[in-house]
Design brief:
Blueprint (H helix, E strand, L loop, with lengths): L11 H10 L1 H15 L9 H20 L9 H28 L1 H4 L8 H27 L11 H25 L3 H15 L14 H4 L3 H14 L7 H25 L3 H4 L1
Helix pairs in contact: 2-6, 3-4, 3-6, 4-6, 4-7, 4-8, 4-10, 6-7, 7-10, 7-11, 10-11
Amino acid sequence: MKKLVIRAGQSNKQYWQDLWHYRELLYFLAWRDILVRYKQTAVGVAWALLRPFISMIVFTIIFSGIAQLPSEGAPYPILVFSAMLPWQFFSSALTDCSNSLINDSNLISKVYFPRLLIPIGSVVVNFVDLLISGIILLGLMIWYSFIPDWRILALPFFILLAFAISIGGGLWFAALNVKYRDFRYVVPFIVQLGFFVAPVGFSSSVVPEKWRLLYSLNPLVGIIDGFRWAILGGTAQLHWPGFLISLSIILAVLWSGIHYFRSTERKFADVI
């Protein structure tokens, strides 16, 4: 049997090799969080379906029925739900990721392993919820006899971007939360504020053209627009200059998040 020796504080190459060697630990951390999340709940994993479904109904009534906003040629419930998927994934993953190190403080202080596995595991759990919620989108498409075109093949790319911004932002807040517990209150506020400035219940095409680039500084705008572009097809358009801005910010947040997390990681056990 091959002997595995893990030494903390080695080169980046060794660190990433450690992550691969500990891939089974990542699996068990994610599985544990899934079990804990729905333990002793009356409807279990159905919560992953109920939350976005109820939100979709409310948004459809408000933005389509009352505000009469355009739907980009698709049924309004599908327009809303194609944005609910990335938004709920991001908001839940960011919150769970930021609290993950504190919640697993006992584990961190006892044994060495790449700490990056803990926040990644919390994001993986929410990715499972995203896949479950996709059942509702599939049901809506069947209900409205809506058939996506070839753009649906690009959907995994935009899911990857949603994963990247969740990991990047989550690593920042997870590391900061270890030192400054104030961030346990800051993150929910940011998520709540982000909800109102993200185009979840409406299409970003209603934003005046002169503000589109500024609006795209919110990286969720590019991701949500990408989801709709891939799912709705047809008349749904992607504002490419704005999308490139969102993409640049996503990559910057991911790179800086990993860098900051790695630079503070060795002090976690002492601070916690």
